[in-house]
Amino acid sequence: MSEATPPRSTLPRRPLAWLRRRLRSSEIWFIALAVVVGAAAGLLSVFQDLIAHRLQSHLYGFAIDDRLSALPRISPIALLWLPAGGLVLGGLTWVMAKWRPLQLIDVVEANALYGGVLSFRDSFVVCVQTLISNGFGASVGLEAAYAQGGGAIASGLGQRLKLRRQDLRTLVGAGSGAAIGAAFGAPLTGAFYAFEIVIGSYAPSMIAPVAAAALASVLVARLMGAAPYSIQIVVFEAPRAFDYLLYAGLGVVCAVVGIAIMRLVGTAERLVRLTPIPTWMRPAVGGGLLAGLAYLSPQTLSSGHGALHADLATSLGLGALAAILLLKTGASVISLGFGFRGGLFFASLFLGSLVGQIYARLVEITGLPLLLQPENAALVGMGALAVAIVGGPLTMSFLVLETTRDFGVSAATLAASLIASTVVRERFGYSFSTWRLHLRGETIRSARDVGWIRTLTAGRMMRADTATIAASATLAEFRRRFPLGSTSRVILLDDAQRYAGIVVTSSAYLEGPGDDSPVSTLATGADVVLSADMNIEQVMQTFDRTETEELAVTDDSGQVLGLLAEVYVARRYAKELEKVQQGLFGEG
Length: 588
Known about the structure:
Blueprint: H1 13-25, H2 27-60, H3 81-99, H4 107-113, H5 120-135, H6 143-160, H7 165-184, H8 187-199, H9 204-223, H10 243-274, H11 282-296, H12 305-314, H13 318-337, H14 345-365, H15 374-389, H16 393-404, H17 407-427, H18 432-439, H19 451-455, H20 458-461, E1 468-470, H21 475-481, E2 489-493, E3 499-504, E4 530-531, H22 536-546, E5 550-554, E6 560-565, H23 566-584
């Protein structure tokens, strides 16, 4: 090898390094990367839907063009696949607990806390668990697998290319939204799912890559000949002006129903954990309960896509609609409470359509000169309940718009969705995904990036080279060791070398106590300290509460680790906020 030839090991890295520079400096290149991610996410969505639907068709013996939840009845023998699927899922969960005992991270949590870093292995497990759950007929949708798979592709590629934090979060949102867009054949729905659910914000720098990914995914899905989760509801009459007031009431009803469903899921999970049933057996027990509900009505199975259309086509009465609503709600709560993996995206759409039809029937029987079209009410209820549970008012409104091409019903859906969203935020505060995280001990309420807040701790910000002196020392000794101008504050230590307060150096030179007085008489803040793991938000709250300028950082035993000044914390917080703002507008 000649001296002019670079080492062979460096040759493959040069194209990758060149691409990284292009992605950092050019928005067009980043959009191109988002198109690639969107196309891959669309392919994966089609593949996942094919696997789950063919598995259902094989197990329950229906034609490939039919839907499990639309079957008129299912034989009791076939329903045994539900507990069997629970056993398969429970076995996989047991193996995973031995192999990787850590909690699996979903896309919302990854974007909120970890800057878009998502484990491909964890995502693969989530997708497999969701496919098993839905494929065997549990009352969950595939949307969790779609979003997780699309996000994992984006995160893996973005980490490989060493994208900046904000770019990686945007790409993960684009991948997840693209997968949802491909599943519904609705690019606007996918794009706003990315903005509202996965990224948690809108910004000019995000619009083009997210939209490009959503369009690419839908195009790929159509080229593959995939049948999207279309919601074929015909609007016969546009809503009248007064109808918007009635739909506002429907939004409140959907908010109440959504909160009740989320609380029921949390309660069910807690009660199941209190039982002596082993973790690996819980899905099988839940599958047995689901089999009983499915025997009463197959509409309780899967996500409910087929049942939604079947119920609208047959124009069911009030009693039948209420019964299906209760059965489907129970099936969803049991599925999630007993450990089946999946989402409530489409299930909430189905439940919302039932709530909307029930609401229209109740308005009709009041005897007042009011009338709501059941189809319109179903669409508005569908969007409003989905917003109450999943979140994303614009996401669901665009889903209705792309489904019906009717701006009147879409506007009514947006109005009801905004009311539902406001009531849920005010009275509950969480979407379904963040509620599940709350039950695990997390405090996030959206996918908004708060990871930097958690990583910026008192231990990272503190100044470790602090001046200390024994609390029993005299003022004379203090003045000898710390003349004016040497340091602003000195930390006092007791006989066991534990924190005993802070002394402002200048206070030792004021008229007052004599030279033989202990320096501890000037100490302040002896009962207020910071721990090293407190994040910057908690640190700032402590400064505000105590109205002090500097606080000591100690360990659990009271040993001093360092000193932290309020002015430095405020400056660091402002600097990090500026970085986030620059990233949002593509200026970083």
